[in-house]
Each structure stands twice: as C-alpha cells, then as structure tokens.
Amino acid sequence: MDHFLYRDGQLYAEDVPVSAIADAVGTPFYVYSTATLTRHFRLFDEALDWGPHLVCFAMKSNSNQAILKVLAGLGAGMDVVSGGEYARAKAAGVPGDRIVFSGVGKTREEMRDALIGGIRQFNVESEPEMRALSEVAVSLGTKAPITLRVNPDVDAKTHEKIATGKSENKFGVPISRAREIYAEAASLPGIDVIGIDVHIGSQLTELAPFEAAYLKVAELTRDLRADGHDIRRLDLGGGLGIPYARSNEAPPLPNDYGALIQRTVGDLGCEIEIEPGRLISGNAGLMVSRAIYIKQGEDREFLILDGAMNDLIRPSMYGAYHDIIPVREPAPGVVPTPYDVVGPVCESGDTFAKGREMPPISEGDLVAFRSAGAYGAVMSSEYNTRPLIPEVLVHGDQFAVIRQRPSFDEIINRDTIPEWLEDTPVPAHQE
Ligand code: LLP
Known about the structure:
Layout: E1 4-7, E2 10-13, E3 16-17, H1 18-25, E4 29-33, H2 34-47, E5 53-58, H3 65-73, E6 77-80, H4 83-91, E7 99-101, H5 108-117, E8 121-124, H6 127-139, E9 144-151, E10 173-174, H7 178-187, E11 191-197, H8 208-226, E12 233-235, H9 254-265, E13 271-274, H10 278-281, E14 285-296, E15 301-305, H11 314-318, E16 324-326, E17 337-342, E18 351-358, E19 366-369, E20 391-395, E21 398-403, H12 408-412, H13 419-422
Parallel strand pairs: 4-20, 5-6, 5-13, 6-7, 7-8, 8-9, 9-10, 9-11, 11-12, 12-13, 15-17
Antiparallel strand pairs: 1-2, 2-3, 4-14, 14-15, 14-19, 16-19, 17-18, 20-21
Bound molecules: ligand LLP.
Ligand LLP binds next to helix 10 and helix 11.
C-alpha cells in the first residue's frame, strides 16, 4: 500500500495534489511520501520483532539526505557501498555503529575513513580485501569488525543484471571455501570476525531462493562455530521485490519474509541484520512528467514526455516495467489507447514503454510513473545536458523540495577550461 491515491478526480501524494507540486517546481520531478517510507520500514522492523535485529536501509536505492533522515529517525541503520554513501549516512546523523559497509571494491581510503568515523561492520567480499582491511586497521591501532559475504550459488530468479548469488557473479567468497577463508580471517591481526553476510539479488518475487540461501548460511554458522568462531551476527542482505505491475503481481510481504528468516536461522541465537532498499523506497516515490506532444507515427502513437531515460533509466537498462498513470483521474469507462511512451533524448532506447494501454492523454497532461522511489533519482544523469530533476518530499499536507533542479549555468560551470584553451579564438564561419 502507498499514499498516492486519486481524490476528487486527481492524484494526491498524501494530502497534497500532485498537480500543485508540478505548478510549484515544474516538471519532471520525483515526489516521495513520508508515510509510505515509514510504513515500509516498520513492516520490516516488525517482521523481525521475534529477536534482536537491525534493518539497514540499502541507501543505494535512494540516498537523499531527507529520506535518510526520515528512516534514521525511525531507528534504521544504513547499508553503504562507497565512501560517498558513508559520508551521506554520517551527514544525515546516522551513528557509525548503525552503518554496514558492503561492496566488492572497497578502497583502503574508504576503509580508513570508515574505521576512523565508526562502523558497525564491513561485509568483506574477498581474501585480498580482507588482508587489506587488516593492514589498514593495524595501521590505525584497531581491529575491523567483519562478516564475510558468502556466495551460496543460488539462483535468485531475477533479472540477470541484478542477480548476485550465483558462482559466476562477482560477489562474495565461494561458500564451499568459506571455512578455510574464515580460518585465515581469524588469524589476521586487524580483523574481528563477528558473523556471516549473504545477498543473492534484487527484485526477488519468490521466497524459495532466500530459503535456499539462508539454509546454507545456517549450516555454515554451525560449521564455523564448530571451528571455534564466535558467529553472532547474520546479515541476510536485501532483495525482497515489489509489485511494479499492480494489476497482476503479488510478491511475498515483509511479514512472510520475516517468518522465513525465523524458520531458517532463528534458532541460532544470532542478531539479524537485513538490507532492504527497494521495498522501503520503491513504492514511496513517483516520477511525474508532462506530455509535450502526441505524435502520430506510421503505425503507432508516440506519447512524448518531458522526462527521459536520463531521469529514470530502469526501463532502458533492465527493460523494467513501471505503471504510468494520468494525474487527472480518468473518467469511469474510458477506453484505453496504446502509446509508445518516450522521452526527448536522442536515442531509440529512450523508451519507457511500447504499446502501453493508457487512458487517452492530451498535450500538457501530467503523468506519474509509479514505483520510482528506488533506483530512480540515484541512477539519473545529465545526459543531453538535461538538468537532474528535483526531488520533493511530502509529509501530510506539507511538501518541500529536497533536491533543487540545477540551472544551466550551474551545470556548465562545473566544467573548467585548461589555461592553454582559455584564449582560443573561435574562427568566423567560412561559407
Ligand atoms: N544489499 C546489497 C549488498 C545489495 O547489493 C543490494 C542491491 C541491496 C542490499 C538492496 O537490494 P534491494 O532490497 O533494493 O533489492 N539498479 C537496480 C537494482 C540494483 C540492486 C543492487 N544491489 C534496479 O533498478 O533494479
């Protein structure tokens, strides 16, 4: 459930008409609902109520400072994957002991900054990373708390670009070699082994792959304990999927997921961490765009929007589906018409949907892309020198811009001209 509903013939974000935000900030823009973010975080938190746990928001899905503040205020930890994300989490006031650091390519500099600034744990993904981390920790006179991310060789049954738990993927250490690698970890002077980490992919729409992976983690926990390691924390990753096409998708709910975790690893007495991103932020956001033209092609109609692939890349990059709905509520019984929904960017890949059946749209109408709060704004770019679009947060009947649209001058002035080019004359045009 989210808080983007039609009321009095138009789409609202909580108690704010989406059209009022469009009037205030221009289009396109992202809008997020505080109530939806809160609800989704609490669903996870409550699903793990049966034992000690921490829900660490995967801030790669949405790292706006205001979003982080909402979640941190509810008690969320953060899962970060770069020095930049670590700095963002700290800037939002998240204490180091609620930040976990994931990722296959952490640099020594990132390790050092996190050890100095405070860290709950590093989720280490390889032997060379583990050795480097030990050296960095020793140089600072400390020990780095770690889990090792194991690759359980489980098929997450999701899009190949976001599946991470098969042996051919770059993530984690092979679970078959885990005992040997833990033995080395325990011998390193700068490493404090505290647990196990696993993350098998994103947008999982079934529980079975999680179950397979978590059963392997349970077995490994027992083996490692038998080897003498004090395994006291399990980080079970993120990945629970959301319904993108509301009419026909019903992925498992956080509550089912929490029960599965209890069933598979609940008897081990470990503290549980999870790292959900999409399920917390995805359906808490819309991208709102305006129709510029309706163009009649040879055999199809193009709905040309002012939003484009640089603003929301998921359809171009993963062939992802997003519901696209008119901001003005369609009259009952209106006959849908098929559109190819496209943006203004100069490549055919700038297509949001082909032959999408929608209520008829007129030039100037607003449309909303649903489920755009995760991996939307964070993956946007300024391709075609299209400014990053604003982000807006709604709270009841209030709304605020939480990231401004930059001006053309701000974009251009980020470039600098080398000295030797400064006085280059531009020749007059020769006919
Ligand atoms: N933990 C780790 C280690 C991850 O790599 C990810 C996502 C998560 C947690 C959060 O997964 P979630 O709960 O959000 O599914 N850009 C893609 C998704 C990439 C996901 C990468 N890792 C998309 O737009 O679908």
